[in-house]
Design brief:
Radius of gyration: 18 Å
CATH architecture: Roll
CATH topology: Thiol Ester Dehydrase, Chain A
Structural class: alpha+beta
CATH class: Alpha Beta
Number of strands: 11
Order of helices and strands: EEHEEEEEHHHEEEE
Strand content: 25-35%
Largest sheet: 11 strands, antiparallel
Number of domains: 1
Bound molecules: ligand LRN75BOA
Number of helices: 4
Shape: globular
Distance between the termini: 39 Å
Length: 277
């Protein structure tokens, strides 16, 4: 059963700065030379997570360590949460060093009864405007799946065999997970606290943040294709785990690219669709 809730609608506005120091740290995390970036250069498309962090007070942090969505959302009584997907439209470049106005709101909340229990699907919309332009430079929708406490049901998808041949492999480790969480001011414990991830949420290991997996995809796209993305859409189908190789496959269809991620057991865990101008 699905029930669509009317918009919560409260618009939250914030001042953000695309700080060179933070951009240099993202570069360092990705093993890119930080000295190749300067004020006035364009923020690489895919790196906007540093401008979309929540700034919740410590007293507002959820029991799972998640700082919240950065916009008011009533307590839905669903203590667990995973990123379901994102959809981004890049309209203009964001200059490094620029000041931005960020507008965020809950766009939609749907409630579902599923085999795993109650679920809410929450979509939040962010716009980033450079101060001198009336139209947003970037519009991003993020969908979070909120769930009841972990049951006996394992959240790990069934094994399907080996990863596909011809894929590029990347293995996120504890350090990468920590640095991504720190740069996004995200203290969710499934990415940082192995005992919590296993014992409280029932995962086999630390879960790779879907935003980090997306960043690894967009970096792969930047290096292999080199064209500017105009849109990207992701869907997270199964969790990816720390210290396990992720296999990335990329296919082109005209001006669109489809990237898929498989875990070390061959489970298709994520897909990303990219278009270019
Ligand atoms: C936290 C956090 C950030 C993160 O990045 S967490 C890591 C990244 N995300 C994931 O690893 C999620 C991977 N996906 C899953 O584990 C499963 O898909 C999930 C979400 C547990 C749902 O699986 P179920 O088997 O329990 O449910 P169903 O597949 O039957 O779906 C039930 C309804 O939910 C809708 N739905 C499912 N997945 C998504 C999705 N990715 N996006 C949007 N909607 C989704 C599905 O359509 C079903 O609805 P129907 O109307 O079709 O019944 C951080 O920032 O800290």
């Amino acid at each position: 059963m699905t029930t669509d809730q009317p918009e919560y609608g409260n618009l939250v506005t914030r001042q953000e700065t695309c700080a060179l120091a933070t951009v240099r740290r993202v570069a360092a995390m990705l093993d890119v030379d930080p000295n190749t970036f300067a004020n006035g250069d364009s923020l690489p498309r895919g790196w906007q997570f540093i401008l979309l962090a929540a700034d919740s007070r410590r007293s507002e942090i959820r029991s799972d360590g998640f700082p919240g969505l950065g916009v008011p959302l009533p307590d839905l009584g669903l203590p667990r949460l995973l990123l379901g997907g994102r959809s981004v439209e890049y309209r203009r470049d964001i200059p490094i060093g620029s000041n931005l106005l960020r507008k965020s709101r809950i766009q939609k909340v749907s409630h579902k009864e599923t085999l795993s229990g109650q679920m809410a699907i929450v979509t939040i919309e962010h716009e980033l405007n450079t101060v001198d332009e009336p139209e947003p430079a970037l519009v991003e929708f993020q969908t979070y799946i909120m769930m009841s406490a972990a049951t006996n049901r394992t959240p790990t998808a069934p094994a399907e065999g080996a990863p596909p041949a011809g894929a590029v492999s990347v293995t996120p480790d504890d350090t990468l997970l920590f640095q991504y969480s720190a740069l996004g001011f995200n203290s969710h414990k499934i990415h940082l606290d192995r005992a919590y991830a296993r014992e409280t949420e029932g995962f086999t290991d630390l879960v790779v943040n879907g935003g980090l997996a997306t960043l690894l995809f967009t970096e792969h796209f930047r290096k292999e294709v080199g064209q500017k993305m105009t849109t990207l859409r992701t869907k997270h189908l199964a969790p990816l785990f720390c210290a396990r190789p992720i296999s990335i496959l990329m296919d082109r269809d005209g001006e669109s690219w489809r990237l898929e991620a498989f875990d070390d057991r061959g489970v298709r865990a994520m897909e990303m669709l990219v278009t270019t101008a």
